[in-house]
Every structure is written in C-alpha cells, then in structure tokens.
Please model this.
Amino acid sequence: MLVDEWEPAGVYLNTASYGLPPRAAWDALQAALADWRGGRTSWRPWHDATDLARAAWARIAGCAVEDVAVGANVSGLLGIVAASLPARSRMVAVRDDYTSLLWPLLVQGEVRTVAVSELADAAADADVLAFSAVQSATGEVADLDAIAAAAQAHGVMTIVDATQALGWLPLDATRFDVVACAAYKWLMAPRGTAFMSVRRSRLDAIEPVLAGWFAAEDVHGSYYGTEMQLARSARRLDTSPAWFSWVGALPALELIERIGVERIHAHDVGLANRFRAGLGLPPGDSAIVAVEAAGAERLEAAGIIAPVRAGRLRTSWHAYNSEADVDRVLDVLAG
Model:
C-alpha cells in the first residue's frame, strides 16, 4: 500500500464508520476551502469534480457512467427507488441490516426479513431482494453469485447497499438492478458523497421526485423556468452536490483505482485473517471482524480506535493498516 498517503494518529480500525482521507484528497479539500474563503474562483471547478468522481466510481463498480446517479447519502438515493416500487411489492431484506437500506423500504410497506444465507432461496417468493453486500455489524459477506443467479431466475429486483464493500471488495454492479454506496467509509471520501447505479431497464420506473437543476439534461441551461427536460441517463436522479465533499472525493477514488481493488482486497482480508488467527479463529472472507467485546476498553486506553457494535468489538482493516497494527491490537487484547 502507499502508506505515505495517510497520517493516522495511531492504530485506526474504524473504517466501517468512516475512512481516513489520503493526502491528495485532504490537500484538494483544503485548497478548495481556501479558494472559497477568499472568493478566488467560480464554483464550476468544484462542480466538475462531481462528474469526474461519478466516472471514477463507475469504473470501480464496473458499470457505465450513464447508469450512475449521485446524492448525499444512501437513504436519500434508495428512498427514491423505494417510493417508486409497485404497491404491495413482496419485499425481502436481511434481519438487522443497516437502517439506511431498511427504513426506506419499511416506509413503503411490509418487509419480510431473513438471514443473509437465506437470501438466494427467498427469491422464489419475492418481488424485491434488498441487502447489504457486506453486513455493517458483523462483516458477513453476502453470496453475491448465488443471489444474482436466483434473482435472475425468478425475475426479482435486486437492491444492494455496497457501502461496506466497494473500496475493498471486488463487485460488479451490473449484476444487480440498483447498487447504492456511501463513499465516506471504504472509499475514504468526505461525508456527503454517495452513488447509485441503476440498470437501464429499471430507470424509467423510478420517479425522480427530488429533481432539480442538477438532474437536467442541460445542467447549466436549467437554472430557471418551467421548461423541464430531465437527463435521459441516471443523472435524472441526481441531487445538487455539496461541492467541497466532491472535491475531496475525486482524489480518493482515483487513488483506489491506482492501487487496484483486487490488491486492496488481498491486503485488507490478509490483515483481518492475521487478526483472526491471533485470536484462534478460522480465516474469513471479510475485511471486517466482529468478536467478543472483552478487552475493548483496553484498546481505547491504548489509543486504538475500534468501536463496539451490536455488543461486539468490530475491527475493520484497510489500506492504511499494517501487520504491525494487527500485532499491536493482539498484544493489547491479551493484556
């Protein structure tokens, strides 16, 4: 990894809450803030960072840039999708999944919940399968191959929250109908940046209820008036971007591209499995490891940042972590 790109103050194991910005992202954000304070530039360069970040995310997610909408958070993007589902859709989701995915669906109607391992089988009796590619609380990785195949076989719509996956887990967004992702965790962007890919056959059924000037086919020609021409692409679902967050997002995404998700995946899971082995646990397939919380207070006292979630110590291992970090945590937990 390009370790000189980050400056953690200690051992940071909380990427599942928020990622640390690489140097290039931090510097770009500071430069934009300085220009804002001094009024030295138009807003156009800040705006342009949004579309460049959209293109970078599309490459990371393996989809066409025309199929990507941008917003501020996952619940806002998925709320548009959920509100457009047909009445009485049979919705199936994962028990105890993250509420940014679950609650937009619950607002619309009843949601049947199953275990992650039961999702593929649930497709036979569902219209919609909604799930996180990686569970926030536990780090459990969904069987994406099995779910995609089952959904295709039964004609089921798939809605995926990839927030805890994209940035370390290789994922092909084209295999699913909707893939939403907040960028401030594993993609290491500022908060207020999120993406959503939409399969083209599903786009016309989604009502762009938050449409504004940024959702127009001609963005800069649509500041005023009632002549509304929405973008033909997924940009019709865009909401106006928080400029500075996107200025910081672009270099972070470009760095992930330069390193390569496959390389990050091998690094992150390798560290997670070194940690698991040190605890006497079998290897896993996730960059997130949730274990019994005994000893968590010792980590905090030692300046190691790792939270307790759902009653368990949750560690998340990413590009700025090292084998020395693993050994340090194991030493502290051992007392």
User: Anything to note?
Assistant: The first helix runs from residue 23 to 38. Strands lie at 68-71, 91-94, 111-114, 128-132, 157-161, 178-182, 194-198, 288-292, 308-309, 312-316. Residues 63 and 174 are 6 Å apart (CA to CA). The mean pLDDT is 96.
